[in-house]
Amino acid sequence: MKKIILLSLFLVFAFANIATAQTKVSGIVLDKMNQPVPFANIVFKGSNTGIVSNEDGRFYLESPKTYTALLVTSAGFSDKEIPLEKTVNYNFKIVLSEAEALNEVVIFTGKTSKKNNPALDILRKIWERKRKNGLYQFNQYQMQKYEKVEFDMNTIDSAFMKNKLFKGMEFVFNHVDTSDVTGKTYLPIFINESVYDVYGDNKLKKTKENITGSKTSGFNGNQQILSFVKDLYSDYNIYDNHLTFFDKSFTSPLSKTGIDVYNYVLKDSAYIDKKWCYNIVFYPRRKNELTFKGDFWVNDTTFAIKKINMGVTKSANINWVKDIYIEQEFDVENDSVFLLTRDYMMSDFALNKKEKSKGVYGKRTTLYRDHKFNIQKPEKFYKEEVNYIDNAVYDRPDEFWDENRFEKLNKDELGIYKMLDTLQTVKRFKQIYNLVSILGSGYVEFKNFDYGPIFSTFGYNEVEGLRVRVGGRTYFGPNDPWRIQAYTAYGFDDSKFKYGVSGKWMVDKKKRFIISGGNRRDIEQIGASLTTTNDILGRSFASSALFTTGSNGKLTNINLSNISFEMEPMKNFVVQAGLSYRTLESASPTFSLDYYTTLPTPANPAGVVASAVTQSEANIQFEFMPNRKTIGFGVERDLVDSPFSHFFVNFSYGLKGVFNSDFAYEKIQIYYKQPIIIGPLGRSNIILETGKTFGTIPLGLMSVIPGNQTYFTIENTFSNLNFYEFITDQYTTLQWNHDFGGRLFARIPFMRKLNWREFVGVKGVYGTISAANRAINASDQPYNAPENVYWEYNAGIGNIFKVFRIDFSWRGSYLNTPDANKFAVKGSFGFYF
């Protein structure tokens, strides 16, 4: 009975929406053969409000004003006027006729010409003036910015509302609304509002945003969701050649390379805000490429964009996203200055791209006002704060929002806050939220404590056999100033318990001065990576993979303790100094770390051999990550998943004699990673690692070139190498890998629908071993160094079933090494856009 009453209330609410809406139209555009007409231009007669049909000819158009007719135009067809007898008109079927050559002038059909096209003449004028328009005309600028981000479940129907999943939460359906872009019903589940003061200096090429207020409801405080939101809505400039969304590079319709990927048609001209403007429609020349379809209005004298609407084509090779719609509006500041005042972006996330599939809308509305120009600020003003903390920003009263919202929330939006706050008190919702949180973070949440990570619960190796691990961490909130983590593990073959415990405390929040320390006793595959840190709880996948391609018995018992001090003196530049103490001993009777403490002589041919290493070490490291974006300001932060450069340097010093330490040495390690986005050709990563140890050290302290004996891809390892196949005390590795993003397969007709993606790569290493280090080796492990450069290359196919990638790797050198792996196949799983 309760469900029936709520359903009745929803129907009343839905009919109320219909009664108050002015004009809504949806339908499909067809030709006389009943085939869809893609990219047709549909506008309300007597207005500039319009839309371009999608690849299936479908469209939805809405306006708060009342209109009585539609105008439908498309290259190669006669214009058609459709009378609107009602304010709400769904499922229109519009049939266009081919243009008659005798009395109509049709310049372009299908693929438009690159010659004698007036639309391209205008486009070239836009290129010439793009650096002279808008904010680029001024040395300095400042303004206010208001941003509203919302997530909504969409395609809400009666069957969806009756789902047992929503038992106890039926009241939320009173807030169902209709999208003015797609015409689908939706239900808000998250909303965030933020206000900023924005400053920029075109001479210094510096920008700065100061947040003055932020308000959130729905999943408040969830770091993963907030990180996803920040990554989803990265800033972009419509005039740039390429626009990056979801870590993919789309060709802008205003790009200089746009002529090669878009068709352009000059459709109309009219006055907009007393400015004469041209209307140009654009749509892609080929399917499966990262392109848009839509139209823009451009001024006839400044060639500045006045308004642009565009949506990602349905065939674009991007996962989990059915639609992306962008709308920007520019206001005329004076005769020659057009400024962006409204930016709207909507994404429709769904498991598939079928028209009726349910999903989630992600929407961002950004408004700008109060522009001021040529007010110079000192260069130090633009220096970004390391850890901006102002709790008052997140606790502004209602009066602040009444004054600082650029546009008032409508009645439905005001009700969202109350609905979402109420929803989070419902037991059923909490259960759903907790499940999503577990899958996203890997931890099961309890009060002030998280159990996990659950994905590390089981493992296997030849020494421990089946391995079970349990652990957890303190968690009072995403911005905790301190955190303690611990775990214990048990191997069923060696019948031994292992453990690790660590803690960290942020003493100074502004400079992020952090003290950390801990202890771990466990079995580890040392040499699983070249550039090492003293992370107490870090563990290589190589030590506990459930399935391997060969023996993984070359494991080491490690007892590691450390204390470190970390500071971030400037944004994304981290300095850390620490002390560590470790003991290393072979964990397997078939593997030895033995070394000579006294070399063999004629008088003592056996020499003196030791099996365990005791080592104290001091280290200092520098880490610089320009353009890295983070979420939160606690002792642990989440990263926004966007590409950034990474430069790391570590100096280590062996303290012989300290706590019975065995060796004195100096070690330097350098790591550099540079992502490169190459426009429509995809993205490359170049990674350089180099290091050298000065002094005499045993096998346990050498730099082992990391192999990979699992069936899965592990970053910064060599797929065709076994563990300990190459050992060095100085090394240099260089690797290049590239993701084409499906650009090549999109050109092959029978492969387009698969939406597979192409990967290629090559990596190599050069290294040597000093005579002194060779001399003290008493283990059964032969010392081989890649003095003639070892290299391998790979090619892969990704996006198989949207979650799987397979890589094929070939050995390029050292082909005659005993038991050499000349070919390897590795796989990986992941959710990628």
UniProtKB/TrEMBL annotation:
This is CarboxypepD_reg-like domain-containing protein. Residues 1-21 form the signal peptide. Pfam families: CarbopepD_reg_2, DUF5686. Keywords: Signal. InterPro entries: CarboxyPept-like_regulatory (IPR008969), DUF5686 (IPR043741).
